[in-house]
Specification:
With 182 residues, this protein is an all-alpha fold. The protein contains seven helices and no strands. The protein has helices spanning 2-6, 9-38, 44-72, 74-95, 100-125, 132-160, 163-181. Helix 4 packs antiparallel against helix 5 (100-125). The longest helix is centred in the N-terminal third of the chain and has 30 residues, at 9-38. The protein is globular, with a radius of gyration of 16 Å.
């Protein structure tokens, strides 16, 4: 039964999209504190506040996005969330060292975390009922692979160019995920 899930096109596309989303999340969670501390000269307390903003916005967005996906469909919510995540990450990079950067952190958290539950629900819908847990497990495994490579890729890009180029890379990962969903 497990191998049938690996051949399930819908589950694989949703899982690969979720992996790109996880790449974006892992890259942000790894390098956002570095950027805030070393580029914006924020204290550890303020860095913590900014990361709390990111998570709190996601906490608010999750149930809202889940409800919208139940009413409007998974695909519409995921595409909208991914597109807006990409736009807000580009906004972060363009905001540079201004206070607007913190505003964009909250927006990224809202849109990035909004789609997690929707992608899980979509993965369940792509699998036979008796394999729903295994299907979500496959999705988590694939997303973990995406998340595991993101910090290294982000670091290579930031070293080769600068941290703003790395933020553009993260926007690109979420836009790539959107193409898979679309």
């Amino acid at each position: 039964d497990f191998t049938s899930l690996l051949r399930n096109k819908g589950l694989m596309l949703v899982s690969c999209s979720a992996a790109f989303r996880s790449m974006t999340q892992a890259g942000l969670l790894t390098f956002l504190p570095v950027y805030l501390a070393y580029q914006m000269d924020y204290s550890p307390f303020i860095v913590g506040i900014c990361l709390t903003l990111l998570q709190t916005a996601g906490f608010i967005a999750g149930p809202f996005a889940g409800h919208l996906s139940d009413r409007m469909g998974r695909k519409r919510v995921v595409i909208s969330s991914m597109l807006l995540t990409g736009v807000t990450i580009i906004g972060m990079a363009l905001a540079g060292r201004s206070i607007l950067f913190v505003f964009f952190i909250a927006l990224v958290g809202f849109f990035l975390y909004a789609m997690r539950s929707v992608l899980q629900a979509w993965a369940i819908e792509c699998t036979p009922k008796h394999l729903a847990g295994t299907g979500v497990g496959v999705q988590f495994g694939i997303t973990a692979m995406g998340a595991s490579v993101a910090p290294a890729l982000f670091g290579v890009i930031a070293d080769a160019w600068d941290i703003y180029a790395a933020f553009y890379f993260l926007a690109g990962t979420i836009i790539a995920a959107n193409f898979l969903v679309f």
